[in-house]
């Protein structure tokens, strides 16, 4: 007991305890995660693209697909927040390389949608079962169309910098875990709401308005992919010039 007493030090003021929990810090961090990821994920802009890919599917299938995409997005964001940097380091991949490769994939998807011929709902393969449709929930609906390389790179950056910003010690602390879950859940709930309401938006816009919105969203998706790829290329060029 004497040895334990001799080496034990009372924590100084401002020094966080190992299991400390500050609700104000958690609330601020959760809001920061949501506010940072929402414009990048952009479920409002992704809803017309989701509708263009699922046009002709029954409403029940669209809603089930929206729920599965939201769940997959949550898992992908949490994995990026906590393990993204370690995975990239293990494989020797840099963030600019992820942005360049992912941006090309997003641009290719946007280009394919932009040049997709107009088809009515009757032209869809009505023989496809719901299970077959849900197998595509992760790719391409979740990755890269919903949570793309831009969202993943931002989530990795947040996971690396938030603990330092709030002086939590490390990203696996209780406060970091709770704030990451709350922030990611908020984003994924918005994804589910926007995607599940895509059919209502289509009925409100009408056939012409929906077609225009889909083409515009496809072009924006192509531009986003080009911008992400350009950002990655700039990062790679800076690294090359630095050496």
Strand and helix layout:
Blueprint: H1 2-7, H2 23-41, H3 43-54, H4 59-91, H5 95-114, H6 130-134, H7 137-142, H8 149-166, H9 174-196, H10 198-242
Helix pairs in contact: 2-8, 2-9, 3-9, 3-10, 4-8, 4-9, 5-10
Determine Rg (CA atoms, Å). 22 Å
Average pLDDT: 81
Proportion in β-strands: under 5%
- Distance N to C terminus: 56 Å
Structure summarized in a few sentences:
The chain has 243 residues and is mainly alpha-helical.
Overview of this protein structure:
The structure is a single chain. The chain is an all-alpha fold and 243 residues long. Helices cover 77% and strands 0% of the residues. Helix 2 runs parallel beside helix 9 and helix 4 (59-91) packs across helix 8 (149-166).
What descriptors fit this protein?
243 residues; mainly alpha; globular; disordered N terminus
